[in-house]
Design a protein that fits this description.
This protein is α/β, with parallel strands linked by helices and 326 residues long. It has 11 helices and 13 strands. The longest helix has 16 residues.
Length: 326
């Protein structure tokens, strides 16, 4: 089926990590000065899944967590957000669920991610082969799953199985240098994942990285749209986005807000984009609604907790004078 047909089923299989986020409370404090912390669910894939569920879609997560208090917290949070966790396994041993400590501040912002021996990287062939792909409309993953084995090979196997079941593949480049053994490996693997995907979202730095230079990132996104992907979204931060659909190029602006933090924008953008497409909205409107979701999340504490519902997104759009002109 086409990417849009799969998305319109509003039932997504999401591969990738769930973790625990800690941030100093109240907002604006440095971690070094913190006396109390806000605790929330995190992890790019889990955030996207939670965002989709808030919009009334269904989402199931495929990953692993550690069989300990942090892993149990994540399992409970997936239940709280309504994300199907029937394909999330808790594993014993020395692998640990990811932990992120980030500041709800822009100036001198600090994010510290603990992913040594990460449990989600233990996702293996048996895990992805146990999934009934025919139940879902589309597969989503973020680039972090490809950073280590056995998760890398398992996710490429999931791509094969999804394709065999007729599911479109949705790929958030989500390049995190600290997770990869080298930039060279990351460039090769992420480029390969992009070549297999039907809908690709990334920022200018990520596409530039895949192309071997930020000045060539826009051409990389354009080439991916012409060679296989039906939709490619090239995000440029405050300068908006360029969306490629074959030979069509659409430029869109953003919804300026007073940001509290830089984290969570990409996950919320993806959830808003896909939920809007699933409702039958045209691509330009869908990208703009994704951009509005990103603005909402950076203007509030937390990532998954800040993901808007449809009503909250509509209220934001009705009260905001944006988007900016392009």
């Amino acid at each position: 089926m086409s990417a849009i047909e799969g998305i319109k089923k509003r039932d997504f299989l999401v591969i990738g990590r769930v973790g625990m986020d800690l941030s100093p409370d109240p907002a604006g404090q440095r971690t070094r000065d913190a006396k109390t912390m806000m605790v929330a669910m995190g992890g790019s894939s889990a955030n996207i899944a939670a965002g989709l569920v808030k919009f009334g879609c269904k989402a199931a997560l495929v990953t692993k967590v550690s069989d300990d208090a942090v892993g149990w917290y994540c399992l409970d949070q997936l239940d709280r957000y309504g994300v199907d966790r029937s394909h999330v396994d808790a594993i014993k041993g020395e692998c640990r669920t990811s932990l992120a400590i980030y500041e709800t501040r822009i100036e001198e912002h600090q994010s510290v991610i603990y992913r040594n021996n990460a449990a989600d990287f233990q996702l293996d062939m048996a895990d992805v082969e146990a999934v009934d792909y025919s139940r879902y409309g589309a597969l989503i993953t973020a680039g972090t799953v490809f950073a280590a084995e056995p998760s890398r090979s398992a996710t490429f196997r999931a791509f094969e199985l999804a394709r065999a079941a007729g599911l479109p593949i949705i790929f958030d480049v989500d390049y995190r240098p600290y997770s990869w053994p080298s930039p060279q490996v990351a460039e090769e693997v992420l480029s390969h994942a992009g070549s297999l995907s039907d809908l690709i979202v990334g920022n200018d730095e990520e596409f530039g990285f895949m192309a071997g230079g930020i000045d060539r990132g826009l051409d990389k996104a354009r080439d991916l749209a012409r060679s296989g992907a039906s939709i490619v979204v090239y995000k440029m931060g405050p300068d908006g986005a360029v969306t490629f659909m074959g030979d069509q190029e659409v430029r869109t602006g953003i919804y300026p807000v007073t940001a509290l933090k830089p984290t969570g924008a990409g996950d919320s953008f993806m959830a808003g984009l896909l939920a809007s497409l699933s409702e039958g909205r045209e691509i330009t409107e869908a990208v703009l609604r994704g951009s509005a979701c990103a603005s909402i999340v950076v203007s509030q504490p937390g990532c998954a907790p800040a993901m808007p519902t449809a009503a909250e997104l509509d209220a934001f759009l009705n009260s905001h004078p944006g988007p900016t002109a392009v």
